[in-house]
Design a protein that fits this description.
It is a multi-pass membrane protein. One of its GO terms (molecular function) is peptidoglycan glycosyltransferase activity. The chain is mostly helical and 383 residues long. Helix content is 71%, strand content 2%. The chain is built from 14 helices and two strands. A two-stranded antiparallel sheet has the order 1-2. The longest helix has 33 residues. The C terminus is likely disordered.
């Protein structure tokens, strides 16, 4: 038992971190282990691998991911800003390297292999980008004369340009939505928000006209008979098959034919084997984490902590919402993992880094002695 009277880094962390939010994240990680065991063996067998290949890798990546999450949650806001700057710089360098020497898979260059490990640098760039943007927006509220908003816009254009070159329009859309949310949370004028929404819509329309891959997905969503909709149709059928309580562990049918049942469509496998009830539980966990983080963020007096924690919560929630919406055919298909549930090394570790920063920024930090002295002096002067 950790005592409140102990003045150690561990005790201070334990009594200031949001333990309910931490518990919800751990439950998601455990659910990811169970669903990986349910969804991945058929995929591994189809491509000639050991049945538990993806499951073993999923569990293996969870170890460094959990370590990263806990370690980052100990950091102070200043340390978080510095780590985000380093992670973002390294991620941008890796994205550029991916564009130059990365292998082309299905017309895209998104992965690079370092020391035998496949890395998708855009995953680690996302949480770091959110924190840096929040830092700039927070500075703009303190020092209006500083061109912080313009710098945040340049940051967005830099990352989005590189993602479009891969191309990865799913991540581009996610990044743009989160940046727009931060822009709104920071109190920018509605005319700017509407203008940015217009630019984003124009960009999506341009992608529809110029990129056949994007046009095909939108057309298949609007008119299923216009192309191959096997994956999304099979995923939706899994929800019907599962009903409220599912067919039972290992009894699912969709995972036997879905190529991405362990990644993009693991939510459909969960619905078929464990039922809609489990899906609602997962949805509730995601909603709880996001709402809890937002409520604690808005209780913070530190503008950077408020903006950064809010942005990270929106990033986490929107990514989950996109994945679940694709599984339910509510939006066009796009390659987006379900946080801590889908298989993926870079994704899991990067998500752990993001929620670790979210936990750190929403900790109840006691007022320092210097702040108390400053308030006391101010009160004396006022009196």
């Amino acid at each position: 038992m950790i005592s409140r009277e102990q003045r150690t880094p561990l005790s201070e962390w334990w009594w200031t971190v949001d333990r309910l939010q931490l518990a919800a994240i751990i439950v998601l990680m455990l659910a990811g282990i169970i669903l990986s065991l349910a969804a991945s063996p058929p995929v591994a067998v189809r491509i000639g691998l050991d049945p538990f290949h993806f499951f073993n890798h999923h569990v293996m990546f969870l170890v460094p991911a959990f370590t990263v999450m806990i370690a980052v949650s100990f950091l102070s806001p200043k340390q978080i800003r510095r780590s985000a700057l380093i992670v973002f710089a390294v991620s941008i360098a890796l994205i550029v390297a991916t564009l130059l020497i990365g292998p082309e898979v299905k017309g895209s260059r998104r992965w690079i292999t370092l020391i035998g490990v496949n890395i998708q640098a855009s995953e680690s760039a996302k949480p770091a980008f959110v924190v840096l943007s929040a830092w700039l927006f927070a500075e703009s509220t303190k020092r209006p004369e500083m061109p912080a908003t313009s710098m945040a816009l340049m940051l967005l254009l830099t990352l989005v340009s590189l993602l479009v070159m891969e191309p990865d329009f799913g991540q581009t859309m996610l990044i743009s939505m989160v940046w727009g949310s931060l822009f709104f949370i920071a109190g920018m004028r509605m005319v700017w928000v509407m203008g940015l929404a217009g630019v984003a819509s124009a960009g999506l329309f341009g992608a529809y006209l110029l990129v056949p891959h994007v046009a095909g997905r939108i057309q298949r969503f609007m008119n299923p008979s216009s192309g191959d909709t096997f994956q999304v149709d099979t995923a939706l059928e899994a929800f019907y098959n599962g009903g409220w309580f599912g067919l039972g562990p290992g009894e699912g049918i969709a995972k036997r034919s879905l190529p991405d049942s362990h990644t993009d469509f693991v939510f459909a496998v969960a619905a078929e084997e464990f039922g809609i009830v489990l899906c609602l539980v997962l949805l509730s966990l995601f909603a709880f984490i996001v709402i809890r983080a937002l409520s604690r963020a808005y209780a913070s007096e530190d503008m950077f902590a408020r903006f950064a924690a809010s942005g990270l919560a929106v990033l986490f929630g929107v990514q989950a919402a996109i994945n679940m919406s694709v599984n339910l055919q509510l939006i066009p298909a796009k390659g987006m993992t379900l946080p801590f549930i889908s298989y993926g090394g870079s994704s899991i570790v990067s998500l752990a880094y993001g929620v670790g920063m979210m936990l750190a920024l929403t900790r109840h930090r006691p007022r320092t002695e210097m702040e108390s002295i400053g308030d006391a002096n101010a009160l004396r002067g006022y009196a």
